[in-house]
Each structure stands twice: as C-alpha cells, then as structure tokens.
Amino acid sequence: MSEDGETQGENTSPPVQKLLQCLEWVYEAALNGIPGVDGVEDLAQSYSTQHRCTDGAIDSLISWQIAKTSTAGFITGVSEILTLGLPTSPACCTSRSA
After folding, report:
1. Would the pLDDT of 77 be above 80?
2. Is residue 85 part of a domain?
3. Is residue 57 part of a domain?
4. What mean pLDDT value characterizes the chain?
5. pTM of the full structure
6. Staple 57 to which of 15, 25, 51, 75, CB 3.0 to 4.6 Å?
7. 29 assigned to some structural domain
8. pLDDT tens, residue by residue, 10-58
9. Above 70 in pLDDT, residue 93?
C-alpha cells in the first residue's frame, strides 16, 4: 500500500490486483474484527483483563492460538484422509518378493 492509501495496482496484472485486494481485506478484518470475531485490540484487552501480568496474557494468547490452529490442521488432515480414502485391501499394502 502506498503512502496515500492507494494500492499499487496500476502496474500489476488483474490476478495480482485481486490477490492484493484479498490480502488488504484480511488485514483489515484482523485489525478491526468481523462479526463474531474480535479485532486485535479487543482480543488483547480481553486477555489483559484475565491475567495479572502482561507476560501471562501473552503466553496464554499464544497457547490458545497454537491450540486452535493445530486443531484446525488436524481436522483438515482427517477430512483429507476421509476424502481420499484408505486402502481397504491388505494386498495393496504388502510387497511381493520373488
């Protein structure tokens, strides 16, 4: 983004412009929040009121974010296995030796 608030889209292809627009939307949503999800400042305020010290709030925030992303990754992996399917015949998993 340039200093005047405009994206540098004049010299880029349409797919790159669309990607830049999407990234800008995600950035704004992370800062300001979206319906049902707090923005960065609200999230920080929430954690700071739950903990006595800043370090404790930071550690808790990081731990919860890691737990959420790990859970999402696990669910994605399980659904991928279910979609691709597992071998049902033991013969396909064993090698034949001569």
Report:
1. yes
2. no
3. yes
4. 82
5. 0.55
6. 51
7. yes
8. 678 999 999 999 999 999 998 888 888 888 888 889 999 999 999 999 9
9. no
Residues sharing a CB contact under 8 Å with residue 7, sequence separation 6 or more, in sequence order: 1, 17, 20, 21, 24
Q: How many structural domains is the chain composed of? A: 1
68, 74 contact by CB (below 8 A): no
Residue 37 in contact with residue 23, Cβ under 8 Å?
Answer: no
Half-sphere exposure of 34 (CA within 13 A, CB side): 6
Of the chain, the percentage scoring pLDDT greater than 70 comes to 77
d(CA 84, CA 43): 37
Any bridge partners for residue 34, and if so which? 37
- Torsion angle, alpha carbons of 63, 67, 70, 72, to 10: -140
Distance CA 47, CA 61 (A): 7
**Is the Cβ–Cβ distance between 50 and 60 less than 8 Å?**
yes
What letter represents residue 87's amino acid?
A: P
